Amino acid sequence: MSTPPLAERMRPRKLEDYLGQKHLTGPDGVLPKFIKSGNLPSMIFWGPPGVGKTTLANILAHSLNKEFYSLSAISTGVKEVREIIERTENAGLFQSTPIVFIDEIHRFNKAQQDALLGAVEKGNIILIGATTENPSFEVISALLSRCQVYVLKSLEKEDLMELLDRAIKQDEFLKTRDIELKETQALLRLSGGDGRKLLNLFEAVILSYSDGKCLVTDDIVMQVAQQVIPLYDKKGEQHYDVISAFIKSMRGSDPNGAVYWLARMLNGGEDILFIARRMIILASEDVGNANPNALVIANSCFQAVNSIGMPEARIILSQTAVYLACSPKSNASYMAIGEAMSKAAATAHLPVPLHLRNAPTKLMKQLDYGKDYMYAHSYEGNFVQQNYLPDDIKGTVFYDPGKNAKEEEFRRYLKKMWESIYPY
Q: Which of 73, 178, 185, 189 is deepest in the core (most CB within 10 A)?
């Protein structure tokens, strides 16, 4: 019988042994409360690979003594889903509601998700989905509305070091080896906050020694990593590293880097809609109003590749990536909404000025709602100066136009209209 990999051998069975995600598993987290109450809603765990989504599902099932069905969206069809649902419907009246865990639920198509919906609505199953993709995009709205979404984060350095320490002390195989952790920077960096990736790479390093002392250094880790890390794994191993390189190449205005990393993803079978979505985000976040057409083109790219598919979609993706890389850049709008949301959170108690309020009723008009509001189109140039912020933060500037040709036009316009706010 083959030995399971270290990551599987170290999988915790109890919540108190689970590392990371304290916002969910700590004393004030929702998961201990669910276990204590014995009631569990359907839920979706959203987070990067190797942070413990599958492990949490197993722990919940074990802690609540529930029957547990585990399916992978990659290998499961509608037939298998319906068979499990029929099995749960035929269960005895007093039998506990089973948990159906769907790994990579974002890969389920609409028909597969629809097959789950009825069982979730009737309460015949408790659905736990795991996804590395934003469920707002990938899970049908009817199913999403019936699930609680919990966000899991990459493991911190302290969690990863604790994971290594536990493995060395607790794993039956590792306890037989003389291990010295001289350097850990490469292990931590290559893991990228992924606990499974960390343990599997660490085990590969230890197995590279036939006997004697197992010295773990950054150089040795890098040598082993070059042999065991796949060129590209769209299920997670380099998924985030390569998309990061792709985004940073476009942000850095390098079309050559952009098309290279695009090619790496396409050769690896990456989801073309995932790539297109990331370019829509970049078009707004990093190009912004320096070239407003970028968002239009990125959105058109998404629609086009969705309609056409591969292999022709590669041409559209390449055209868009090159266009975004060669566009002038501005993150001014991105920074503006960040500043505004921070200020809005701190000043949510401030009332809307009376002249900006809507007055659909007679009583509201009597209370001066909308009084003294100046309709911009009634004035020369369709503009009139008046305050559009709560009085306490009047004159606050959130949007600082970027230093590019298009936004310099914005700056000149704003200076002309709002000289007291934009004097420069």
A: 73
Alpha helices (runs of H) in 180-238, residue ranges in sequence order: 185-191, 195-207, 218-228
Rounded distance between C-alpha atoms, residue 29 and residue 332, angstroms: 36
CA distance 300 to 318: 13
The Cα 172–Cα 405 span in angstroms is 64
Q: Please state the length of the chain.
A: 424
DSSP 392: G
Residue with tokens 């699930």: 147
* Count of C-beta atoms within a 10 Å radius of residue 394: 11
The tens digit of pLDDT for each residue in 69-118 reads: 888 877 777 777 788 787 777 655 446 788 889 988 888 878 788 888 88
Percent of the chain with pLDDT over 70: 95
Closest by CA to 261, choosing from 186, 317, 327, is: 317
pTM of model > 0.70: no
CA distance 372 to 374: 6
Is the bond leading into 135 cis (omega within 30 degrees of zero)? no
- List, in sequence order, every residue forming a beta bridge with 45; answer none if it has no partner: 130, 150
Cα angle 279, 281, 285 (rounded to 5 degrees) comes to 115
Beta bridge partners of 47: none
Decide if 86 contacts 69 (C-beta within 8 A). no
Helix (H, G, I), strand (E, B) or coil at 68: strand
Short-list 151, 143, 206, CA closest to 174: 206
Contact 368, 354 (CB under 8 A): yes
Consecutive H or E run containing 304: helix 293-308
Q: DSSP letter for 208, please.
A: T
Q: Return all residues near 55 (Cβ < 8 A) that are at least 6 apart.
A: 11, 12, 18
